Amino acid sequence: MEVPGSSKKMIATQEEIVTAKVPLGYRDQCAHLLIPLNNCRQAEFFLPWKCEDERHVYEKCEYELVMEIMLAMKKIHEEEAKAKQNKLQGNIVPLIPKTANA
């Protein structure tokens, strides 16, 4: 499944996500990493020093997604600022008017 505007693909299927009871807020391109992390957490009784490798991989994936979104938003803001600047430059009234004969 492709996600528009993202370089990462959805690896986990909808069925896997539903079966694993992944909350709606976590159903992103990193859900395939969250499923084994949650399984490990349940098996290890949520001890914080367990499942460190799975957690690190999942958090790295989430970080990369956030950075991708930040870069996309930065590009959008730059394009809007550029368009606004061009619009402002087009509305400037010259101090010396152009004459018909010039």
Automatic annotation (TrEMBL):
Belongs to the complex I NDUFB7 subunit family. It is found in: Mitochondrion inner membrane; Mitochondrion intermembrane space. It is a peripheral membrane protein. Keywords: Disulfide bond, Electron transport, Membrane, Mitochondrion, Mitochondrion inner membrane, Respiratory chain, Transport. It comes from the Eukaryota. GO terms for cellular component: mitochondrial inner membrane; mitochondrial intermembrane space. It comes from Eruca vesicaria subsp. sativa (Garden rocket). InterPro entries: NDUB7. Signal peptide: none annotated. This is NADH dehydrogenase [ubiquinone] 1 beta subcomplex subunit 7. Accessory subunit of the mitochondrial membrane respiratory chain NADH dehydrogenase (Complex I), that is believed not to be involved in catalysis. Complex I functions in the transfer of electrons from NADH to the respiratory chain. The immediate electron acceptor for the enzyme is believed to be ubiquinone.
